[in-house]
Amino acid sequence: MEKSVKIFAPATVANVVCGFDVLGFAVDAPGDEVIMRLTNNPGITISKITGDNGRLPFDPRKNTVSVSVQHYLESIGRTDIGLDIELHKKMPIGSGLGSSSASTVAGLFAAKTLLGDETDAVRLLPFAMKGEEMACGHGHADNVAPALLGGFVLIRSYEPLDVVRLPHPKGLYCAIVFPDVDVPTREARQIIRNKIQMKDAVTQWGNIAGLVSGLFMNDIDLIGRSMKDILVEPVRSMLIPDFYKMREMAMELCAVSFGISGSGPSVFAFTRDEETAHQITQKLQQHLTRLRINSNIYVSEINDKGPKIIG
After folding, report:
1. Tens digit of pLDDT for each residue in 133-182?
2. Distance between CA atoms of 257 and 47, rounded to whole angstroms?
3. Which of 14, 6, 212, 214 is nearest to 101 (CA)?
4. Which domains does the chain have, with CATH numbers?
5. Rounded to an integer, what distance in angstroms lies between the CA atom of residue 233 and that of residue 248?
6. Which of 22, 23, 108, 246 is most buried (CB neighbours < 10 A)?
7. In this structure, are strands 82-88 and 43-50 parallel, antiparallel, or unpaired?
8. What's this model's pTM, rounded to 2 decimal places?
C-alpha cells in the first residue's frame, strides 16, 4: 500500500445550458490537486490548504474533501486508518466550474488509490455528492459525476442514482471565460422558479433530447440547435455582466453554442476547433476588461479521463 499520493481532478461544466442538474462534462483545465498521506493516528487531518485566500476550513468536519472521504472510509469499514490531506486550489472558488467538486473528487480518488481499492470509480459518487451537499446545500451530481468519471455525463435519475456516460464528437472544443464577479451557488439556486408552464417544459425536454441525440450522432449542428434554455438561463443571466452581449460576440465568431457554466458566473462556448475557441476567449476577455472586470480564460477539449495520479 502506498504511503502518499498526489491527485489532480478536473473542472467541470454543469447543466450544459438545457440540462439543469442532469448534464455535465469535464475539461482539461483548470482543476484542483490533493496530496494525501497515510498517518499513524486514526482519523483525518488537513495540514495545508493553498490557493483559497483563507476561505476554506481546516476542520475535517467542515471541509468537503475530508467529509466525503470520511463517508467513504465508513462505507468500507476503514475508519481505523489515519489520513492527512493537503489541498491545493488551482481553480477559482465560486466560478461555476465545479470548484468544490474538483477538490472532493481529488480527495476521494486519492483515498481510493492509497487503499488499493480497485472497484469502479462510480462507487465513489454518493460520497462526492455528500461534499456537494455541504458546499452548496444540494447534493447534485452534474459536477462530481463528470469530474469523477470523465467525459460527458447524464444523470438519468437521482433516486435511485443512475449515471450514464455519453459519447461526444471528437474535436469539439470548449472555450471558458470566468468573469471575476461573485455569484454564490446557493443564491443562484434560490432565484430559480419552482413552477413552470407545460409548454416551457416541453420545449426544454425537446432540447435535452436533441442535445443527447446530437452527441450520439456526432451531429454538431444538432448539438448547437439544442443548447437553448428557457427555464434557468433567463434568470441566472441577470447575475452575469453583459451575458447576452458576450453570447452575441461568441456566435459571431462561429461558436456552436454559448451558455452559463453551472450557476455562473463562468460562461462557455462549444467550437469546432481550437483556434476558434482561443479567438472567442480572447475577445470576451477584452470585452470584460473594457468593463473593468478581470477574468480568467481556458480552452480545452472534453476530458475523458477524469482524475489522475500526478505524483
Report:
1. 887 767 789 999 999 999 999 999 999 999 999 999 999 999 999 999 98
2. 42
3. 14
4. 4-167 (3.30.230.10), 173-301 (3.30.70.890)
5. 15
6. 108
7. parallel
8. 0.94
